Model the fold of this input.
Amino acid sequence: MNETGMNVLILGGGGREHAIGWAIQKSQRAESVYFAPGNAGTSSCGINVQLSILDGDAIRTFCDEHTIGLVIVGPEQPLVVGVADVLREARIPVMGPSAAAARLEGSKSFAKDFMQRHNIPTAAYRTFGSHQLADALAFVNEEGVPIVVKASGLAGGKGAIVCMTLDEAQQAVNDLMRDRILGDAGEEVVIESFMSGEEASVFAVSDGENYVLLSTAQDHKRVGDGDMGPNTGGMGAYAPAPVMTQELLDRTCAEIIEPTLTGMKSEGAPYSGVLYCGLMITDEGPQVVEFNCRLGDPETQVILPLISSDVLELFYASAIGTIADYKLNIRSGSSACVVLASAGYPGSYETGKRISGLNQNDVTDSVVVFQAGTSESELGETVTSGGRVLAVSSTNEDLQGAITKVYQACAEIDFEGVFYRSDIGMKGLSRSVPT
Done:
């Protein structure tokens, strides 16, 4: 990266995007940082603008008018519809894959077929189109349980249903294929074998040729303690994940990440951006649960605070193809994040609840509150506007310390109906930290 300053546009308005902006504005190279649309918290580290994140032409025009040197795409939808392609055609550097490469997340059926073609370890599966309801039900009955039923399209992290009984499996198939509870995401359904083990997330930042590994992490998808209740967008995370030993990380690189990058290039869709590998650590080794084409939320809120090198330079290197020249530095220690949610989430919930406890005393070098589902009221107060409202993150020299800090910070924040899990990071504490 040259020595001149750079204007940056971050697409998205959640906790992930707040965390990205928080990390970006620390760079000496960062000039103006814009968020589209951002939230009540992102204005503390940038400028919120009203801009549709799915309108590539409008984004390109904004970039021209504001001399944007890098666009960072936070959520998956803009990538799947091809926003990165529009920007690349206009020679605007963008951190995120093309629409063709983003199919790894946008279509589970494509991803499963791709993994089969390139011998990447994953669960056995069958794919069924919308006209094959009877065939899908017959397959479930034949295979038995436990079994996993997945909407092939984007479903906000809620499209995978783990079924422990035949009734649950049949209900899941009918919900997705007959009743279309997730709309077009259920146009195709993937039914796959249940994998036993512990989940972990591994993130590679690639420029299409080379890559660097960020810290490993473990998400907590279920809404309730003990991994009970329905899936959510994520209720908390911690990093690094002790389940990912160096041996398993080496295997993940050799058996999953490198074959994926090589395979995408060979199929005419070089993968540039963040490759998020959602893994199950089975008795046979790491296997892919799913690929995502962007940073996770809330994993971003624990991964970025552990990076001591320049994050803007990292993302810019991904965008322009110079990852091989970038030196990534990850500080020692651990990070933990707890999501504060609205009562009723992941179902229906009320918004407009005033949030107290969000003052500068809540933000230190080791504790930061990333805002997600927030907005500013007419009175200038920060109020809730979503299901996942805040992501409170902390760092410490060890995981126990990070967990203690984060829950102390959570206790200082309040809004009507607030709830959060009390067991974030417990799996990590049960394991020894890898050397």
User: Anything to note?
Assistant: The CA atoms of residues 28 and 173 lie 51 Å apart. The domain at 131-186 is CATH 3.30.1490.20 (Dna Ligase; domain 1). The chain has a mean pLDDT of 94. Residues 246-266 form the longest helix (21 residues).
